[in-house]
Amino acid sequence: MSNTTDSKASVSSGTPYGTIPPASPMPGRKPVSLPRLAQMRAQGEKIAMLTAYDATFAAVADAAGVDCILIGDSLGMVCQGRHSTVGVTMEDMVYHTASVARGIHRSQGSAWLVADLPYGSYAESPEQAMRNACSLMQAGAHMVKLEGGGWTVKTVEFLVARGVPVCAHLGLTPQTVYALGGYRVQGRDESAAQLLREQSLQLQEAGASMLVLEMVPASLAASITQELVHCHTIGIGAGNGTAGQVLVLHDMLGMNLGKMPKFVRNFMEGADSIKGAMQAYVQAVKAGSFPDNALHAW
Ligand code: KIV
Hints:
This protein is an alpha/beta fold and 298 residues long. It has one domain: TIM Barrel (Alpha-Beta Barrel). Helices cover 42% and strands 13% of the residues. It has 13 helices and 8 strands. An 8-stranded parallel barrel has the order 1-2-3-4-5-6-7-8, surrounded by 8 helices. The site of 3-methyl-2-oxobutanoic acid has 11 residues, from strand 6. 3-methyl-2-oxobutanoic acid binds next to strand 6.
């Protein structure tokens, strides 16, 4: 076979294995940054976040207009088939963060990338957290996320002082699912709600610029959002009063193999493609029609 035939074959064979072609950025879309997120909040524009774990889904989510992509340790369940996020390692997180970052950079994407510090990677000391945050940032993250309040304040301060943007995570914190006794709504009684309010303010004071509130009553999440000026709340099962929303990708694509959590909408219903489902999600979050407090919240 001649070289000519070979080169013709390679020209006509498309992009093997879904190789990501360089795409032009969404017209008029500025790269998402901390100042841009603050501007969105000030203008009352909701922040749309989705999880992604690989290059292709990340590039498609970006092209669909998703503002922030979370490389969540939920990959332990959806990619690795685990029962919880507890088994996810730093090595796993670096691998998936680098994959997502490549997808975004190669498609000239704009999304803000948040990567989870996994179980056991920040509890020993602020120094341990910094070392592991550096690995995620070097893999392409723009921000790291860690779970818990109170004891995490010193760590958040330490990271932020050294130039690492931090997203905190309160309410249902999946890494401590065994201590919490299951995936349950948090902050239901007044003392638990008050503790969440105090911890949120402390995390803002420490410099966290984003806060995921997971499975907390809608009224509590809305009041925490009002109290936090510099820290943008991102809700999941926390009602529609937060500054933004996040869902696990596989859940919103209807690919949850177990019982779909109450706070999820299957955006594949009525969509003709995965990108279409993601666009519908972004539009619903921005319009405030998702989540619907009557259906998706407590
Ligand atoms: O790991 C993850 O995907 C998360 C979201 C559920 C917020 O932390």
